[in-house]
Structure formats: C-alpha cells, structure tokens
Amino acid sequence: MTISHSLKNALIEIVGEENLLIDELICNHTYTKLGGQADYFVMPTTIQEIQAIVKLADREQIPFTLLGNGSNLIVRDGGIRGIVMNLKKLNKIARDHNTVIAQSGARIIDTSYYALDQSLSGLEFACGIPGTVGGALYMNAGAYGGEIKDCLKEAVVIDLTGQLLTLAADQLELDYRTSNIPDNGYIVIEARFALVENDHAQIKAIMDDLTERRESKQPLEYPSCGSVFKRPPGYFAGQLIQDSQLQGKGIGGAEVSTKHAGFIVNKNSATATDYIAVIEMVQKKVKENYGVILEREVRIIGED
C-alpha cells in the first residue's frame, strides 16, 4: 500500500497517533488468527471520533470496514483496503434500573457476567458467545435457545452519513442470525438490554451449566470462527458434516474439528485460503450426500 500522508494526518488528528496503526495484520485481531493487512487500522475512543471517521471516509470516498473482535469473521489473506475501524476501546457497561447498557466494543460475554453481578436475568445464553455487543446485534447472535432479540430493548447507531440514531429493537429486523444493520450500513454504538431481577445463585447455576456444556463440546483449544454454518431447516449442520465423515479432514492448516463437526479449526498455521477451501469442501460434500445446502453463518471479507 502507498501511504497517503494527508489521510494519515487526518486520521491522527481525529484519533491520535496512538490509536492509528498502518499496515496492521488483521490476523492479530481475529479469532481464527487469519487475515492480511489493513491499510489504516483505527481505534476511536468516543462517538464523536467515530462520526468524524465515517464522514471522512464518505467525503474522500475511502473504503471503510467495521471490525469487531473477529469472532464470526474470516478475513482473506490479501487484507482490507482503506480504513478498518475497531471499537474495542468503547467497552463500558452500566445499569439503569433493570436495563443493562453496553457499548458496542464490550464483549457480550462480559455483558452477561455484568448482568449476573447485578442479579439480572435474560442474558444467560450469551455467557459463551465470543463476540462484541455490536457484533452480537449485527447477526442477532444466539446460543442454547436464546438470542439477542429476546432481550434487546433498543440500540444507538450511527448511519452512513454519521448521524446518531436511537432505534427500537423491532426496527433492526432481528431474525435467525440476521438483522438489517449491514443493509443499512449502521454502526452500533450502544445496546440496551431489558432484563429481569432474579436470584443470583439461580442465574449463576444456569451460566455455569452452559459454560460446562460449551467447554466440553467445542474445540476451544484451537483458533476458529465458532459455528461455521447456519442450521438448515429440519437438520443440524454438525450432524450432516459428521455423517459425511468429514471430521479430521482438512486442507493446508485448516480442518473440520474432530470434537465438534460444526467447527473448522486453524490447527497448524492455516491461511484464510485454506480455511475457505475447507468450508467449500464441506458444503460440496454435504450437498452431494444429502441434497442440503449449508449456508454460512460466518462472514468472509477482504481481498485474495
């Protein structure tokens, strides 16, 4: 990449030199440990900085990508051009009566444990979801029978023009692993969860049980993007993959987990190309065997 000193200086003026990285390897910021370089990697610390970056990118027609903590994402080996914005420094969590207010960069796991500390119930299902609050809203994240739309009251977002909006949960059209956030180009700034007071010990028991189930069944010892595929109607993706005898099969350093067939793990310094090739191999084999098309839950972005 050829560095534009005018763009670099403009970004430094907005976020400060300590919050701008040039040619940053995205593999340092993804759960899969995959992904090439980002031209400009910015980490704003205020809403005003986010708005300024959005307006700068729009005005100068610079490609702009929002990156959470990369838990449900594959970034290709060629990386991402333009500005990549990461909101991990906006991570405050607070309580207002029975509403938990969490900034976009807070981890949804931390938000669920904050609710536990406050003896508030409704976010127990999220205690093992390894994404940010913003990412959880983006895809209506869920686990063990619960999902974000069950407890989200409203969200504060920034639109494509940099305007700040407060939207009720139903305005986000949350559905199975989808929302209208990507279609509208919204940047989630804050989520407000409507929870219910309950016995602390009872909430903790549920979360302890879910954590034990997750740790015993999921291949947490290797980098991965989590569950790769959506559940096809009438089937379970993991069961179809297991029945296709694909566990342990791989390409390069990536392979289908032997512990949970719904996961693909970066077992030995895989590239994004390896990882994507395994996804495509699984989709092809399952379609051949069962006529079922496995739809990706994980997003793939960036350049080859």
TrEMBL record:
Q: What is its EC number?
A: 1.3.1.98
Q: Pathway it belongs to?
A: Cell wall biogenesis; peptidoglycan biosynthesis
Please list the cofactors this protein needs. Answer: FAD
Under Gene Ontology molecular function, one entry of this record is:
UDP-N-acetylmuramate dehydrogenase activity
Q: Which NCBIfam families match?
A: murB, PRK13905.1
Catalytic site positions? R177, S227, E297
Domain (FAD-binding PCMH-type) ranges: 34-198
Q: Which HAMAP family match?
A: MurB
Family affiliation: Belongs to the MurB family.
Q: What is this protein called?
A: UDP-N-acetylenolpyruvoylglucosamine reductase
Q: Which InterPro entries match?
A: FAD-bd_PCMH, FAD-bd_PCMH-like_sf, FAD-bd_PCMH_sub1, FAD-bd_PCMH_sub2, MurB, MurB_C, MurB_C_sf, Oxid_FAD_bind_N
Q: Which UniProt keywords apply?
A: Cell cycle, Cell division, Cell shape, Cell wall biogenesis/degradation, Cytoplasm, FAD, Flavoprotein, NADP, Oxidoreductase, Peptidoglycan synthesis
Please state the protein's primary subcellular location: cytoplasm
Which organism's genome codes for this protein?
Amphibacillus marinus
Q: Which gene encodes it?
A: murB
